């Protein structure tokens, strides 16, 4: 992943977008600090559809006896 200063990204935006479309995202920096990432639309779609951990747990095909019940709290478990 390349880093490019904001002013350079502005000057070469078409080329930076072409690189992102080809799977080469760019980190846009301002005054040496990362400020944004430019990535291709397909990559953004794929990343934006990743389910949350909670949704993954809720979708898990668990049976009633798959998870053991615990008596007491975390102190009893040694935490």
Automatic annotation (TrEMBL):
SUPFAM superfamilies reported in the protein's UniProt record: YefM-like (SSF143120)
Highest taxon of source: Bacteria
Functional note: Antitoxin component of a type II toxin-antitoxin (TA) system.
Protein family: Belongs to the phD/YefM antitoxin family.
Protein name per the record: Antitoxin
Source organism phylogeny: Bacteria, Pseudomonadati, Pseudomonadota, Alphaproteobacteria, Acetobacterales
């Amino acid at each position: 992943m390349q880093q490019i200063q904001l002013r350079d990204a502005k000057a070469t935006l078409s080329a930076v977008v072409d690189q992102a479309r080809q799977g080469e995202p760019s980190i846009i920096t301002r005054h040496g600090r990362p400020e944004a990432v430019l990535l291709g639309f397909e990559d953004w779609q794929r990343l934006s559809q990743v389910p949350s951990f909670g949704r993954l747990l809720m979708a898990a095909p668990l049976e009633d006896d798959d998870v053991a019940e615990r008596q007491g709290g975390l102190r009893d478990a040694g935490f």
